[in-house]
Amino acid sequence: MNVNLPSKVVECQNFVNGKWLTPKGEKIEITSPYNGKIIGTFQSTTKSEVDLAIEAAHFAQQSWAATPMKERTKVMFEFRNILLRDLEEITHIKCSESGKCFEEGKAGLMKGIEVLEFAIALQNMDLGGRVEVSRGVSCEYRREALGVVANITPFNFPAMVPMWTIPIALTLGNAYIWKPSEKTPLTSMKIASALKEAGLPDGLFQVLQGAKETVEAIIDNKHVKAVGFVGSTKIARAVYDRGTQLGKRVLALGGAKNHIVLLPDASPDLAGIGISDSFTGCAGQRCMAASVLLAVGDVDSHIKKIVERASSMTLGKDMGAIITNSQKEFLHSAIERAVKAGASILLDGRNAKAPQGMEEGNWLGPTVLDQVKAGSEAAGIELFGPIISIIRCKDISEAMKIENSVDYGNACSVFTQSGALAEKVIRLASTGMVGVNVGVPVPREPFSFGGVNASKYGHGDITGQHSLDFWSNIKKVTMKWEKQNDNNWMS
Ligand code: NAD
């Protein structure tokens, strides 16, 4: 156990206009996945409180948008210094509420800081451009802020997923409304404090605690121009539909069921580590985790290595806990149902030992299911736990047919030594992100993050270069200052 849980119950609050406020809605308790004990509480934000906070953000945004980007970036640079200074403290908090182990919690925050560094670099990138399009006439692009934007985030990355959007949206001149997951609200208070300390003017970053009703009030508010969402597919679709019906810009990232194609020529060591770490990392609670292993031909020696590495994991040290007790129970029953449907168990995480003193936590060790049938629950539904389902395939064509049959479209990886076979999988994969000998093919900045199909509703990606057009408008300006002798109708 390498995570410090809070020594007393934390009362989570809203952050509005640079001040901490207790909202008036329903009271919700937060339990730590580590030991099932209450570590925090909060009250949900009501519709009238949402509207007041957004009105203030709308007001604050106007002078922020008029502030030169270089000045806005200075705040972001200071924000980075504070996050790095408080890295360990924030990591303990986010791990205590999300169940992550310390090192993976720290890595998530570092990935968030990488996005912040991308946002800091925007000041030095060509964000516009001007061309003389005909004699005496020029056209130019100007990137402008949208106004107030909102983001709704899931429990599994309490700092990294919000950090995908906070730095970029603020640097581009927007005001930002954040509704953190109701399961992990503690981290949001540290992020808000860091932005205040960095010198962000009041009203530009408002944290509103709550769940469904708070989200709906945010989407419906007339000042909110764009809504980013990350969470499960069902809710992503509901948020997308609600926002777009109101004519808003929405980018809603959903769930996943990621496949790994394992070919006989793959390096057993690379595959053993890459595939095991992919399905066990964050206890399988990440949208890029391997979930199905498409085992092509005789790959038993590779599978042995995967099982060996997964068996060596110590709960609480190498692998964290499951977010809630009910989710843990769901995973246990899903394993039972897979066995009834014909799967055999190569490694049973239900027998894994809980860390000492944490027996009341939500634990499930790595679980490897073999002989899973395509189309069954374990093959097609997002389970969101440290479970990998092996489907035996005779060739790549059969494997890719199975991969293509699933609705989701986040990630697919292939393990092979052959460039030609890797290329075949890259071309056939029905996903937004593909890996070659990489178990978790998350693109690093400045490359963008985003899936396709039921893993993403809306256009563009949520980070990197392809997120800029989501968080801003491009104004096209055509100018002429002098009368020309050769005027024609186009100029
Ligand atoms: P979730 O969908 O339950 O919750 C996400 C957010 O939606 C939370 O802030 C929650 O309060 C809010 N919400 C819940 N019900 C709502 C409703 N009816 N209307 C409006 N808002 C509502 O997701 P979760 O359990 O917190 O997170 C896990 C899910 O997120 C998994 O499916 C995972 O794959 C997905 N995820 C996807 C990505 C990605 O990049 N595609 C990244 C991380 C997590």
For this entry, give a set of tags.
491 residues, Aldehyde Dehydrogenase, Chain A, domain 1, Aldehyde Dehydrogenase, Chain A, domain 2, seven-stranded mixed sheet, six-stranded mixed sheet, 14 helices, 21 strands, binds nicotinamide-adenine-dinucleotide
Model description:
By secondary structure, the protein is α/β, with parallel strands linked by helices. It folds into 2 domains: 10-253 and 448-475, Aldehyde Dehydrogenase, Chain A, domain 1 (3-Layer(aba) Sandwich), CATH 3.40.605.10; 258-436, 3-Layer(aba) Sandwich (Aldehyde Dehydrogenase, Chain A, domain 2). It is built from 14 helices and 21 strands. The strands form 5 sheets. A 7-stranded mixed beta sheet has the order 15-16-17-14-13-18-19, with helices on both faces. Strands 10-9-8-11-12-20 form a 6-stranded mixed beta sheet, sandwiched between helices. It has a 3-stranded mixed beta sheet with strand order 1-5-4, with no helix packed on it. Helix 1 (47-65) packs across helix 7 (212-220), helix 3 (87-98) crosses helix 4 and helix 9 packs across helix 10. The chain is globular, with a radius of gyration of 24 Å. Bound molecules: nicotinamide-adenine-dinucleotide. Residues 152-157, 161, 179, 181-182, 211-212, 215, 230-232, 235, 238-239, 253-256, 287, 382, 384, 410, 451, 455 line the site of nicotinamide-adenine-dinucleotide.
